[in-house]
Amino acid sequence: MAEFEPIASQDTIVDAIGADMLVVGGGIAGMTAAIETAEIGKRVILVERSPSLGGRVAAMHRYFPKICPPQCGIEINLRRMRANPNVRVLTLAEVESIAGAPGDYEVQVKLKPRFVNHNCTCCGECEAVCEIEREDDYNQGLAKTKAIYLPHLMAYPHRYVVDPAYAGDERMRKCAEACRYGAIELDMPSRMVTARVGAVVWATGWKPYDATKLETLGFGKCANVITNVMMERYASSDGPTAGKIVRLSDGAEIKKIGFVQFAGSRDEHHLPYCSSVCCLASMKQATYVRERYPDAEIHFFYIDVRSPGRMEEFYRKAQADNRFFFHRGKVGKITENADETVVLEAENTLTGAVTSLEVDLAVLAVGMVPNTADEPPPTDVPRDEFGFMVADGAAGIVGAGVTSRPFDVAAAVQDATGAALKAISTGTGG
Amino acid sequence: MEKRTGVYICRGCDIGNALDIEKLSEVASTEMKVPVCRVHDALCNAEGVGLIKADIANEGINRAVVAACSPRMFAEAFEFGADVLTDRINLREQVAWSHEPNDEDTQMLAEDQVRMGVARVAAVGPAQADIQKTTKTLMVIGGGVTGLNAAKSAAAAGYAVTLVEKEDRLGGWANRFRSVFPKHPPYTELEVGGCEVLVEAVEADPNITVHKSTTVKKTSGQPGQFLVELVNNAGVSEVNVGAIVLAAGWKPYDATKLSHLGYGVSRDVITNIEMEDMVANSGIRRPSDGKPIASVAFIQCAGSRDEEHLPYCSSVCCRVSLKQVLYVREQHPGAKIYVIYKDIRSPAQYEQFYTHVQAEDNVFFTKGEIEGVTPASDGRVTLAIQDTLLGKHIEINADLVVLATGMVPATRIEEVANPGAAESTEEQMAGDAAESPDKASAESILNLAYRQGRDLPTLKYGFPDSHFICFPYETRRTGIYAAGAVRSPMDISSCVTDAAGAALKSIQAVESVSRGAALHPRAGDLSYPAFLMQKCTQCKRCTEECPFGAIDEDEKGTPRPNVLRCRRCGVCFGACPERIISFENYSVNMVSQMIKAIHVPDEFEEKPRILAFVCENDGIPSIDMAGALRLRYNAMARIIPLRCLGSMNAVWVSDALSSGFDGVLLIGCKSGDDYQCHFVRGSELAASRMGNVREKLKQLALEEERVEIHEVDISDCRRIPKIMNDFLEVIETVGPNPYKGM
Questions:
Q1: Distance spanning both ends of chain B, measured CA to CA
Q2: Which residues in chain A have Cβ-Cβ distances shorter than 8 Å to B76?
Q3: Which structural domains are found in chain A, ordered by start?
Q4: Are A257 and A363 spatial neighbours (Cβ–Cβ below 8 Å)?
Q5: pLDDT in tens, B155-202
Q6: What is the pLDDT of residues A95-109, one digit of tens each?
Q7: How far is B558 from chain A, CA to nearest CA, in Å?
Q8: What pLDDT band is residue B503 in, cutting at 50, 70 and 90?
Q9: Who among A7, A274, A390 is closest to B76 (CB)?
Q10: Min CA distance, A246 vs chain B (Å)?
Q11: Residue A40 predicted with pLDDT over 60
């Protein structure tokens, strides 16, 4: 059994690692649980299945209510993590099995190959000569990267990665040859690592509800209908349009935009629960539009505006914008005209009339589906009918972040910090 | 120990292609007289690191200066242990990647980077922790559900806790709730309220000492060494604690202010709290005549989301009313129940609870604005409502009306002139103190004996909450954490989570200070500020400007630093006109030496020089990312990273101008209402100190345009070239510094 090794030597090939806690999921909740635990002196292994930490938050443009960039908080967290020898990060890593009991778990973690080793300096030479392009998952598939790429500018570990679909492709040899540091290993194998830990925090986050299932709302059929998650990428300067929010069909400026709230949420046929953040997220995205288009009309279709606590102020600011129109009514149908202008049909609950509104772009505020709905921990954990992990107070595997319930960033961090203490106490048998 | 410096220059990542590395080495060894200077093709790789380690072992190198990529990259590779001071010079993102290769100006920039780096390392020492005797006992103020859980979680993790509660029993509000709304699937059944089990567990816990009917008379000291004076009927006692969780909770909004909603006008108009009490004790009856209920109306947002009362939403009242609808249904199966709301806020899986309650018979939900609540002639209460789902204007007669009133934090001081205003605690305190000096002390919970005030600074509406979205537990008083409804309106299950989170933060605090290490955001930093008191002129700038109130004052105004409260930002030394404050590894002198080391060409060469002070939290990463994107800008600026722009001392601007710099650029985090500054007021202070700087410029007969301050956020890397190039244009227009070459 190898001793716990600080992150400096994380590339040393080890078969087994011992630690106080295993955190599964390297998004904001997982990162928080890991660092907060490490800072009280406990050893933590943080497992993330994608090539970089940061999760969904790293792909956001801003968050509410301060409209500040997520990279700021991520930078501080990465700095804390780099400075702390108690955290060991494993990326491209997935948990295959969990055995044991609270206080003594044995977890099998599969490490998929990055095909790039620790010699990578991120000089970018390989990328420059690479002939193969692939869909950029960081950009929601809306852009492309080369087959060898750096996930994003705040990626951690800061190291290139090869899309496994192309590792065996002949053309990748060129990239390997271009590397002056011997960092590309196209034959890198998968590895298994055994982690022996006292506690486990499960923080695997969420994915957006599949908008193609909202058959009447035009997603995938109308050119100018997007989701809230896609909107974050369009607004970002490292996004598919370098931060310009425009009509997708022809690149024209936005004169009217429609935010379609609870698209597929609070709906027995799709997601019966409320994702709690989408009202605020849409109002936030409205500020992106307002920043770029001082005169654009912003139309917001809702049933209840959920801006709890001090977020109410954020709602008040939106209400004070005299070109921001609130329509109480569910958008039931979205179609497009011949010129690809979007037509939104909604029933106004106060008047009973069905109104029809044309907009340049429609943003469907889709909800959050926890990853534990279809990818639960490989061991029995209580979940509710929607797939969220239920905190039943018993010791064991503790859920954190959106794994427990739909949260905004501050609440996810709050939850992860609390979960960390709960898990630590589990590990020490407290 | 003798300082022995080695400079290691990396040729990788195009650094070698862009620069004359030999000349660079000469700057280090010949000019700066560094004993060891080596060049390698890939310092971050095993062989490169091995080279440095060999020198540490064999050449006695104890200061390793790595001239390569940004210090934010590959920090793990360049880890040489506590005995070696490691420093980084950025030749990649700030030089090779963002400027013209094989160009004279780029070469000059690189050479100055080396000069600055070597000068910096010569001017500093390794951080050596100030280890003091500290305690790891925690204090929790407030024995409600948050305080109880904080105490219990901390005790379960092995820490001793002192719990202080002002009432004569533990349990707070939760004791009064017969049931709570559902937290477990299928989210439709009410769950048992109260917290007797929790109270018993806490009272029985050998790690928790409970003080009931007790308040805090005074809190002094610092994390690890707080001295708290407790007072109760038995007298005063003292406790030594390492960190404090403030879980003082809330009180309901004063319903006597809601006469427009019928409160005080009809006895049958009650608050949600009064409803809970009825349910827990006598059963639901009309307060006026004790008769049973045939109809109830719930008025949501009573005095909430209202500029005249509480502008914010208390987030739980919708769910509480849904719960109370079920109470009514239990006790009066046939009663008609109306819920008049603005928005129903039942987030997440609580939506299922809302759906369940909506499906009950004889329960009517309608959105509407209350126009009036008046007693009816038949003894009932009439509600006039407009803009409803049922029509423009309706009237409802009900036997009982329940006002869903909101939550006010216990830290909010009453009788403030304008309750809707979002005042900070300092403003509230100042206002109250002016009118009645005793009022402030009567209301204070912590009674901090801190120069900057008795309580945690509040964020808005009296909540002592964190300004940071990513770091919700942070407060502006180191080692003191607010949790539960005192920091933000929240329900019981959020309070439970919050309690555990705050407990963890307070555990971190005591563990870190016991090692002399700093807390967020410079977690783990072992450096600490030293004060040369003999030269202090008692100007009180440091004691006022420290964002965390770390520096107290004696009667003469002499600063009394509390090092364990310090977050190591350096804002104090930025403020100090006598420059008496310094850290071993970060000081005014260090920056002055860096400035002096830069070669400023004399005017005849027409190469302006700009000095850029850049905050390392958002500014430096932004500049790094501009380099990573290979964005190009002029090579006239020399960048000095600062821990916070607030640590900028005006003497540096004087130093720069007298060294012949043509312009000074300050780049920091956003200030203002939605501030980004990690040290709260750093960039704001830097901006206000610009007033003094402009005075200085006038005295020197220099143009004001020579100094600019910019706020940059971390994702703004594409703005960097414009900021740099635009400023150069300004300087070129203004012309060379007349003091150049003097």
A1: 38
A2: 6-8, 10, 82
A3: 16-112+190-207+369-427 (3.50.50.60), 125-178 (no CATH), 210-366 (3.50.50.60)
A4: yes
A5: 999 999 999 999 999 999 999 999 999 999 999 999 999 999 999 999
A6: 999 999 999 999 999
A7: 34
A8: very high
A9: A7
A10: 20
A11: yes
Residues B710-715 have a mean pLDDT of 93
**Least Cα separation, residue A274 to chain B (angstroms):** 4
Q: For residue A54, what are its two tokens?
A: 């940061």
- Tens digit of each residue's pLDDT (9 = 90 or more) over B278-307: 999 989 999 999 999 999 999 999 999 999
Question: How far apart, in Å, do the first and last CA atoms of chain A sit?
Answer: 26
Q: Is the peptide bond before B182 cis (omega within 30 degrees of 0)?
A: no
Q: Which residues make beta-bridge pairs with B341?
A: B367
Q: Classify strands B269-271 and B400-405 as parallel, antiparallel or unpaired.
A: parallel
Closest A-chain CA to B460: A310
Q: From its phi and psi, is residue A373 left (phi > 0), alpha (psi between -120 and 50) or beta?
A: alpha
Sign of CA dihedral B342, B347, B350, B351: positive
**Interchain proximity A72–B348, CB inside 8 Å:** no
**In b/e form, how buried is each residue of A167-197, taking b as 16+ CB within 10 angstroms?**
beeeebeebbebbebebbbbebeeeebbbbb
Assess contact for A360 and A342: CB atoms under 8 A: yes
How far apart (Å, rounded) are the C-alpha atoms in residues B255 and B232?
30
pLDDT attached to residue A394: 58
A350 at B interface, C-beta within 8 A: yes
Amino acid identity, position B398: A
Closest-CA distance, A338 to chain B, in angstroms, reads 36
Report how many Cβ contacts below 8 Å link chain A to chain B.
242
d(CA A414, CA A298) in angstroms, rounded, equals 32
B504/A274 Cβ within 8 A: no
Is B387's Cβ below 8 Å from some Cβ in A?
yes
Q: Which two tokens stand for residue B444?
A: 């204070």
Touching check for A430 and chain B: CB below 8 Å? yes
CA dist B492 and A186 (Å) reads 53
Which residue's structure tokens are 């980084």?
B88
> A401-414: per-residue pLDDT in tens?
999 999 999 999 99
Q: Which SS3 state, helix, strand or coil, does residue B3 take?
A: coil
> Angle of helix A409-427 relative to helix B145-156, nearest 10 degrees?
40
- Whether the CB-CB separation of A103 and A423 falls below 8 Å is answered with no
Q: Answer whether A86's CB lies under 8 Å from B515's CB.
A: no
Give the minimum alpha-carbon distance from B577 to chain A in angstroms, rounded to a whole number.
30
CB contact under 8 A, B498 and A414: yes
Cα atoms in the Cβ-side hemisphere of radius 13 Å centred on A344 = 28
Nearest to A430 among B158, B489, B678 (CB): B158
pLDDT at A249: 95
Q: How many angstroms separate the CA atoms of B34 and B26, rounded?
A: 10
Say how far apart CA B147 and CA B198 lie, in whole Å: 11
pTM of the model: 0.94
Give the mean pLDDT of chain B.
Answer: 93
Q: Do B523 and A39 touch (CB under 8 A)?
A: yes
Distance (Å, rounded) from C-alpha A160 to C-alpha A246? 31
Q: Which residues of B172-187 are buried (b: 16+ CB within 10 A; e: fewer)?
A: bbbbebbbbbbbbbeb
Contacts of A248 (CB under 8 A, 6+ apart): A223, A224, A226, A361
Extract the tokens encoding B213: 């009917």
**B324 phi, psi to nearest 5 deg:** -70, -25
Cα nearest neighbour of A183 on chain B: B45
B6 within 8 A of B65, measured Cβ to Cβ: yes
Q: For A354-410, what is each residue's pLDDT tens digit?
A: 999 999 999 999 999 999 999 999 988 999 999 999 986 556 799 999 999 999 999
Place of tokens 């490691």: B86
